[in-house]
Design a protein that fits this description.
With about 80 residues, the chain is mostly helical. The chain is built from three helices and no strands.
Length: about 80
């Protein structure tokens, strides 16, 4: 996502002819978009995206479990039942 943002900023600077970006070639200005596409292709091909989504889902689930345990008053209580 950072590469897309960088590409947008560079593209606006080039179009508005601001600063040193005004004299750069268009392929240099648009290269962050190509790098973003390469990153997304690699992330999808290697399973990085799915793995990160699963980690976030597991973290949310664990937080919900801890919140429910705390609401029931069983968080940290390891008393033995007789």
């Amino acid at each position: 996502m950072y590469l897309v943002g960088l590409g947008l900023v560079l593209m606006i600077l080039k179009y508005m002819e601001i600063g040193p970006v005004a004299v750069w070639d268009w392929w240099v200005v648009l290269s962050p978009f190509g790098l973003a596409m390469a990153w997304w292709a690699w992330a999808d091909a290697t399973g990085y995206t799915k793995r990160k989504a699963m980690e976030a889902e597991n973290a949310k689930r664990q937080a919900r479990i801890e919140r429910n345990r705390d609401a029931m008053g069983t968080l940290g209580s390891k008393k033995r039942r007789r």
